[in-house]
Amino acid sequence: MKMIKVEDAVGCILSHDVTQIIPGEFKGRVFKKGHIIKAEDIQKFLEIGKEHIYVWEPKEGELHENDAAIRISNLVVGEGVAKSEEIKEGKVDFFADRDGILRIDKEKLFTINSIGEIIVSTLHNNTPIKKGEKIGATRVIPLIIDEKPILKAEELVKDKVIWVDEIKPKKCLLITTGNEVYKGRIKDAFLPVIKAKLGYYGSEVIRQVILPDEKERIIEEIQKGLEEKVDMIICTGGMSVDPDDVTPTAIKESGGELVTYGSPVLPGAMFLLAYHNGTPILGVPSCAMYSKRTVLDLVLPRVLADERLSFEDIAHYGHGGLCLDCDVCTFPHCSFGK
């Protein structure tokens, strides 16, 4: 790459984007890579402090920042992710191409960012995403980069690093327990909450059953739901360790595989997760009725994306599992669940 005075650059092809910054007013590109410099451009270059421009003379084993960024983006982007059509200053932005759960292979991401001179930046793994949201970007640091870091990345990273798993609509059976609700002493408050949270992801409660705190009847309704082949069963109420709260025992004795009873998430410590031949059964504690965000907000989208969660998956929520109950909730773009 050769540096020449702008006064001598008329007719030359600009090898890089040129950005102007006016603090508090403007930051943007004024000349694009590939622009053929004209006599009337010289004054503008001088006004933004550019007395010289660079003309790239390609050499074997070197890449322009934009070409390198394209190769990195092709390496890391998987299904459900769209790339920005225009590349600026060696940077490619990534956007969700569908509603779903953002997946990041954190080990491969670390591998790329450990190479040097190339970066990939993303949102957190397992963040619920809407189509069109920006989820990451890659950028090359030098204007002209040696090809070796790119080749090393391509050698070390064989699978995609960023993708979006689709959330699929599901039909849910809601089993609400509690003598106080069953006998009409208080009004059920779970149904509107569960309907709203499922509805946000295109899923629905197809039926609600309100039961007393009787283990055998809860087991019976769980079995009935499984026979109806519902996609998911959510049990609400009776999730504490009080002797008369029998919902956890009923879920355990219904024949499913218990993943966890208890989660390191607040609100949501008394959460239960089980699977019965692949059908998820969620035991949702009472905090879901009155707290804006709970463990349900962390687990539900992953379950709707057909991810089979393990005990380890739930245990990992301890780091970031404290909701601050902010006056203005920005979830999922906050620390909760990260």
TrEMBL record:
Superkingdom, natural source: Bacteria
Pathway per the UniProt entry: Cofactor biosynthesis; molybdopterin biosynthesis
Keyword annotations of the record: Magnesium, Metal-binding, Molybdenum, Molybdenum cofactor biosynthesis, Transferase
PANTHER family: MOLYBDOPTERIN BIOSYNTHESIS PROTEIN (PTHR10192), MOLYBDOPTERIN MOLYBDENUMTRANSFERASE (PTHR10192:SF28)
SUPFAM superfamilies, sorted: Molybdenum cofactor biosynthesis proteins (SSF53218)
The EC number(s) this enzyme carries: 2.10.1.1
Reactions performed catalytically: adenylyl-molybdopterin + molybdate = Mo-molybdopterin + AMP + H(+)
InterPro entries: MoaB/Mog-like_dom_sf, MoaB/Mog_dom, MoeA-like
The keyword Metal-binding appears for this protein: yes
Family recorded in the similarity comment: Belongs to the MoeA family.
The organism of origin for this protein: Clostridium hominis
The protein's required cofactors: Mg(2+)
A Pfam short name: MoCF_biosynth
Protein role: Catalyzes the insertion of molybdate into adenylated molybdopterin with the concomitant release of AMP.
Record protein name field: Molybdopterin molybdenumtransferase
SMART domains the record matches: MoCF_biosynth
Domain MoaB/Mog: 173-305
